[in-house]
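Retro notes, item 3 of 5
We never archived the inputs for the magnesium ion complex last cycle. Fixing that now. Sequence and ligand:
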Amino acid sequence: MISVSTKLEDLSWIPRPRLLALRRLDIETTEDLLTHFPRRHEDRTEFPQFPREETNVSICLCGEVIKTSLRRFGGWKKIFEATLEESQPNALSEPLVCRWFNLHYVQKMIATGQRIVVFGRPRLRGKRICIDHPEFEVIENDEEISIHFRRITPIYPATEGLSQRVLRGIIYRVLHEFPDAGWQSIAPNSLVHGERSDAIRAIHFPGSWEARDAAREHLVLSEFFAMQMLIASRRFESSARAGQAHCGSGALLDEFLKGLPFELTAAQRKVISEIRRDVAANYPMNRLLQGDVGSGKTVVAIAAMLLVVEAGYEAAFMAPTQILAEQHYEVLRRWLEPLGVHIALRTAARQEESGPLPLFDLGSARVSRAGDGGAPSRTFPEVDVALGARYSRPRVPHFEKAWTIYAVTIATKKDRCLSPKARTTVLNSLRHFHNKRYEMFAACVMPDHVHLLIQPWPKGGDDKANTSFWRLSELVHSIKSFSAHEINEIENKNGSIWEKERFDRYVPSDRDLQEKFHYILRNPWDSGVAKQNEDYPWVWTQNDESRKERLFRRDTETSMGDACATQTNEPQIIVGTHALLYESVSFSNLGLTVIDEQHKFGVAQRARLTAREPAPDVLVMTATPIPRTLTMTIYGDLDVSKIDEMPRNRGKIITAVRDTSKLGEVLSFLRTQFEKGRQLYVIYPLIDESEKLDVKAAAAEYELWRERLHPFRCELLHGRIPASEKQQVMGRFRRGDTDALISTTVLEVGVDVPNATMMLIENAERFGLAQLHQLRGRIGRGEHKSTCILLSSSQAKETSAKLAVLERTTNGFEVAEADWELRGPGDVLGTAQSGLPALKIGDLKRDADLMRRARSAAMSIFEMDPRLDLAENQRFRRLIVEQQKQSFSHVS
Ligand code: ADP
Ligand code: MG
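Structure as it came back at the time:
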């Protein structure tokens, strides 16, 4: 009897090449196979007549091949044509021509006399009705016709080496052999109707379209429910973590508010009180603050930080770009230094006050000297019983943050024992990726296993939007493949060397880290592989004397308690960029982290911050309005506060789309504004700051604008200008010494100059809606009316639809919904960013309502039983572990 976990290779009837093709799709068990859902279904109950005209939609047709031909064109290119005739042709029937360009395998599959089913959009080509590149399926024998035809037929995502027909046949047979009661339901009965097994059957081979839809709803709800359980577990787990109350009396805050030149809006006051409640509680705050550009989030952040500072803790304020960090630094100094609060700036390029504080003291590297580590160690695998289970039990991080420092153990195959030379090779490969893909803190290569302590690095540069990180599985894989070949060469052997990875664990606290660190460094001696007093050359740590003394200072240092914060010279607020994360800055006493403009930080980075214990309070701020469905997923583990009101003194922003040919008129309008003393941003279309900037092109751009705007003064700003110069350019603009800033999108977030009331965006069609909205947020910050001009020379329909949205509204949420409408969710929610498992069937946009239902079901389970202790909730526990594995740890 087969079950969900039956391996396909144990079903004797699936031929090996098919198994390999399936494996390429990550399909190894019957469950994998049966949750490989159809991409769509075709109604093959009966086929329509061949069309005589073009249609707007794709249709599914069946016919007999009466002629094939292969023609060449343009030298080496080929067109293969198959002409089909209807099954029951009549006098009016037209043949249908199917064409494939340069797909030589098609001609091998189709021959005259065959019956084939095609799916595609018929078009008129000359006098003939043609479908170019249709999907097709050859009807081979009539025996299996009941599987593939005369029904609503599933169409699966295509794969190499596995035709629709073969895949469908395998799924059909497995479903047939599968017991009715084989599926445990995922979601509770209050959420879904019917049995999972029925839904699975019906999604593949539905009896009717209604049955298909019902099955889909069941499966989508189950999938969303599983996802929401993971999110809810993160949420409840983090509120159950050790946190601390970080809240002062509020006197400092009151003083600050008194000094402000404006009254807080009601929305700001409401949000501050929400934050205050969290900060004063002894669970860690995890709060998202949404507020459109210009709604005044910075003031709220400052309020939160002051509460924390007053209680004697440090606060970190992180911005996505250097310009923004520097701007925050200036603002904070101006406002807070009079109150006696010490502020430091730390960015990658410049550090005021002391440099970055290291998180680790790594001791000295051990001297290498020859030593033959002969026999396999006894720590592995016997350590299971001996040294305590904590280092050996395959344990999946459960109810924990996705991303942190990892202690990893990689074992060799049972019969493989690494020679000293091979161990050196392994150590070298470990070091090869150090500071490239991960930061490695310690490593130890034993004859039959390797321990390492690593923290994954972001892929690509620091300042880029949407940073993603190396995943643990990728890292382990690169280490293994990097070393394997060479080891085989050294040892004159063949075959695989490494076990499938099974051992990984996150390091949840500094104390745990310290233990693992010492464990790794002591391992050869403790296990008896090396004698005491003898060197073991394959132990490695970062050897950096300057990092000494700092190790684990959080553990040893007692909190500052109620020491009056304002009397210390240590910085109390540290402002910085991502560097605050990547450079392992340690805070002795971190109480609150504020992350500004979260859309530039991934979930992984957020997790990195909160991995420590006691967990600091975290306030995430975003101006990127994201539709509600997405908030429920990407930020589903956070509490949400909203500033839904703009400060009253705001001038209106008028947005106008203009064709490039109208530049002359636009310029004369700009001049009238200059004469009133207003300032201008020109955004030129170098979209991605990482795009290699041709300095010459930038200079040309600048020259052009200088001429156009003469005699008004302009300056150039882009990402490659050295930081100190950038700072000066911004300073001159802020003071009004320059009238116009010609800039790339480095301006995008946060920059705040109220007198700048004009913005001109060149080639606006090249930017996304969200980004344009962000850019536009730079103006309309003072009391004057502002104007945003979107220059575009594109006539495309999509472009005008997109830009019209901005003309229509300045409300960020409306922009976001429209964006979502125009683009779809794919771009907005990358799985890597979300830290959630990929969806197999649900569609965030189309199924928003189902997501809402799934979320409330998951939340109510956790509300009643936050630790999932009840017997009936045990299956949800397993579900979460499953989800967790899929989302970030493919190692296990
Ligand atoms: P964002 O939410 O986009 O980060 P900021 O915090 O930069 O917005 O605020 C934009 C501008 O509005 C700043 O100059 C800030 O001083 C000002 N501001 C903030 N709150 C108020 C308020 N309640 N009334 C008037 N101006 C305010
Ligand atoms: Mg801001």
